[in-house]
Design brief:
- By secondary structure, this protein is mainly alpha-helical.
- The protein is 77% helix and 0% strand.
- Helix 1 runs parallel beside helix 3, helix 3 packs across helix 4 and helix 4 packs across helix 5.
- The radius of gyration is 14 Å and the shape is globular.
Length: 107
């Protein structure tokens, strides 16, 4: 598809909707079980799954400290989402990163 087309705009809107969701349920899974679940989602390569991982790890980080593996996974997910949006919008990754950070600061 052409950059900036309607399908791309809808995808970006959906990514932001996922990131803004506040009701994320964390059961009392051990960090390694959570990690495996998150890794499975990232491996799909599906941008919405990656956005969910990023959102969930950001939310989790607000209530408890992340394991080393979870911190690395958050960085990986964030990098993938930022790059995807930056390319689609033809914006710098720094601008997109700042926009995403605002979601988690105010939400």
């Amino acid at each position: 598809y052409e950059p900036g087309d309607e399908a791309e705009v809808k995808i970006i809107r959906e990514i932001f909707a996922i990131l803004k969701e506040r009701t994320v349920a964390f059961d009392n899974q051990t960090w390694n079980r959570r990690y495996r679940g998150f890794m499975d989602k990232i491996k799909t390569g599906y941008v919405f799954d990656v956005a969910e991982v990023m959102r969930d790890l950001y939310r989790l980080k607000q209530v408890k400290s992340l394991s080393f593996g979870e911190r690395r996974m958050l960085e990986t997910a964030r990098a993938l989402i930022v790059k995807e949006i930056a390319v689609a919008r033809r914006k710098s990754e720094d601008k997109v990163q700042a926009e995403i950070e605002k979601i988690f600061e105010t939400n």
